[in-house]
Amino acid sequence: MEFIREIVCQAYFDGKSSEKIFSLLHLYLPKHEPLNLNYTYRMDGDKGFESDKEMIDYFVNTDCIQQIFYWNQNIDNPDRISFGVNITDDNKTIFSLTIDGTIALAEIYLHDLKQKLDSDIGIITFVNPAEYENGLEFKMKYR
Fold it and tell me: How confident is the model at residue 1, as a pLDDT?
């Protein structure tokens, strides 16, 4: 089987959940690099964040706000997984795993991710993530 760099596996989650984000992050990247606390800012701009958890909680608990997060892990990561979360402005979440591997491996990761999200909506793309405006559009296009 052909080895391919940057295969993107994306799956739909019907909602937003810090618990879901962190449980999957720790599952796929148990030794992940923390986010830079200047990664993004609050909409009111008054103050920054003191932790990854505070940053994620802010975007999960704020309605109609969009933010994308990516984590990586530089050790013990043979498939070179990068974990992504797109919190959409319609209060849905698109999870992604970007890997280096084969189509068969990507299909395994996508199936696993969809199963953990209790979702039947997902897609595999190459190099660039799938295009969509919000969670509803992802759901309708990639069902």
Answer: 77
